From TrEMBL:
Family recorded in the similarity comment: Belongs to the amidase family. GatA subfamily.
Designated name of the protein: Glutamyl-tRNA(Gln) amidotransferase subunit A
PANTHER family the UniProt entry points to: GLUTAMYL-TRNA(GLN) AMIDOTRANSFERASE SUBUNIT A (PTHR11895:SF151), TRANSAMIDASE (PTHR11895)
Single Gene Ontology MF annotation: ATP binding
UniProt keyword annotations, A-Z: ATP-binding, Ligase, Nucleotide-binding, Protein biosynthesis
Assigned EC number: 6.3.5.7
Enzyme class: ligase
Gene this protein is translated from: gatA
Amino acid sequence: MTLKEALKLNSEDIEKLKEDLKIKIKNSGVGAYIEQIENKEISSSGNGVPIAIKNNINVKNWELDCSSNILKGYISPFNATVVEKLQSAGLSPFGLTNMDEFAMGSSTESSSYGKTLNPIDNTRIPGGSSGGSAAAVAAGIAIAALGTDTGGSIRQPAAYCGVVGMKPTYGRVSRYGIAAYSSSLDQCGPITQNVEDAAILYDIIAGYDEKDSTSANIPYTKITPNLNSNKKFTIAVIDNFVAQASNEIQTAFNKAVELLKEQGHKIVHTNMIDTNKIISTYYIISSAEASANLARFDGVRYGARKGDGNLKDMYVDTKTEGFGYEVKKRVMVGSFVLSSGYYDAYYIKAQKVRSLIKAEFDKIFENSDLILSPVAPTTAPKFGSYSNALEMYLADIYTIGVNLSGLPAISLPVAKDKEGLPIGLQLIANSYEEQTLFDGALSMEKAVKYIK
């Protein structure tokens, strides 16, 4: 059942739907961890259409731990703005989904709950950090879900699991009540079964919020009433990006381009800044901001508290036992690049390169409406296939530039490889051009329908 169909149900049908989903969740083998707390009953906050919520989004009276031991036992006293908007629109938060600890990762393996399995192939990662949300939707145990995207964390798992994932323009969706990883990059967005459902859910959660200082105070026009798959666009292809993808990704990409041409869209070719510079810039900035944001988790106000000695021992013991390896690593890198003597050499330089990246996107959009790009260089890797952290970071080469530039983007499945694994491509639009983004995505969805 799609979100569009579910919104038409009466209250009795919605309750029956929730019971059916509970059975699916308990019987599913994908390890999506959609329970509020592992091994406890699935809870629902409200009487509306059930929507899965990533485990870093506050739901009042639910435990929120961001899949980290350091926040175990923390009960949220309030709803995030996106949750308030869901409830106002007749939707109901329905369990928290697994994620990489504090959203730091690309595989959902760094979770304190353990890994989430890809429902297409249980030997493969579902992507991250919103892997639990994508897996739940792909497995049919959630109608739709909310995720967060810091460097591709909605779009990459959506591509690996064969569903639709959308990252809004920075500032379009309130971050109030969402645990921060990297404040200048994070955005909340929908993960759904199709493009129209993504537009419906985006319309519900988007808009200005005075409680969020980064929220864009500009007029908002709903997308769904104006969806049009017949519009023709100029779509840019970044050739040096595509060249770094696997042969199967390139083949699917080229076929998608030909189908878009047949639909009447104009394709233009261009090049852009070296992806190595984009990766370096992203991990310097995101780690620096993570270092600042996670300083608050010290055992004093939130979650777990460790250590029986003095205050310093409590800080050390709480963070040593509470944070996982990936989080510790990024916090240490962030502290280093912000430290005296290195701030100018790394952090300031990264911010300058960030401006260059945004300028290059702006230049492309002078002559194009949309950009078509792979989401990841390969299909979903097997668990344990990354030999080092750098290989995992390289999986984000196509997605992180979008976050550095604050642009909207949407990932949708376009093909399957010879093993039946989904291949996703993404469309990128200029800031606040979500209508163009969804119209183009709807056109591509109708055109490709899984390329053979």
